[in-house]
Amino acid sequence: MPWRNQLPGWRDPSTPPGGVTPTIGLVASDKYALDPQMRVLLADLGVNHENVLRRAGLPGDLLNRPNVALAGEEYHRFWTALDAEAGHPALPLLLMNAITVEAFNPVLFATLCSADLRQAARRLQTYKSLIGPMRLDIDTDADTTTIACRWLDDQPPSSLAVAELLFWVAMARIGTRVDVRPISIVTVRPPVDQAPYVDALHVAIEHGPQHAITFAAVDAARPFLTVNEAMWEQ
């Protein structure tokens, strides 16, 4: 079975260059699929997963179950509990730095096999709608590429929204092996303590009506050294 079949409903969208890439018209999931690597990730962060689940009022064996899907309110409780249990003023930065290529993850793999950040975003655009009530909107012009996350249910916890945006910084840096710096990050509820974000990203996270991250066109088109188109043919 091809590895990409592990992404439910996956197909590689064909997108014309330039302009706004609309969200692919698929039926969205009304529940959030919990990353099967979450337990490993929490261990890497030194966060006790049992305490997180207890805080969130979720079953203690949840992360041992296959194919976990949570209702929006449950998923947001999980993230709020994770933020509290981690006790770190910049949890999204910890998560960004914890992303590695060592642990197999279909989402990570699909992203890093892409030619560049633009193609990675287009590929992940389809997948996002299948694992939860959210969308990716991609806006590309001659100067910039903007990736915006839209939640179709309630507004997400601040740490979740920022973590989703910083995922793209991690992908750009891992894929290119260059210290790619976004030129703009906006979110509905930006972090109060901006210092660690400015240190790591060289830009403050600003308040805005949406959750979006913008890269310079040169960085969005910077070739991924991890590209492997042959994997898409298997």
How would you describe what is shown here?
The protein is an alpha+beta fold. It contains 9 helices and 8 strands. It has helices spanning 38-45, 49-56, 72-86, 91-98, 106-112, 117-130, 158-176, 195-201, 217-220, and strands spanning 19-21, 32-33, 69-70, 134-140, 144-151, 184-187, 205-207, 211-216. Strands 1-4-5-8-6-7 form a 6-stranded mixed sheet. Helix 2 crosses helix 3 (72-86), helix 4 runs parallel beside helix 7 (158-176) and helix 5 packs antiparallel against helix 6 (117-130). The longest helix is centred in the last third of the chain and has 19 residues, at 158-176. It starts with 18 loop residues before the first strand and ends in a 14-residue tail after the last helix.
Which helices and strands, and how do they pair?
Blueprint: E1 19-21, E2 32-33, H1 38-45, H2 49-56, E3 69-70, H3 72-86, H4 91-98, H5 106-112, H6 117-130, E4 134-140, E5 144-151, H7 158-176, E6 184-187, H8 195-201, E7 205-207, E8 211-216, H9 217-220
Parallel strand pairs: 6-7
Antiparallel strand pairs: 1-4, 2-3, 4-5, 5-8, 6-8
Helix pairs in contact: 2-3, 4-7, 5-6
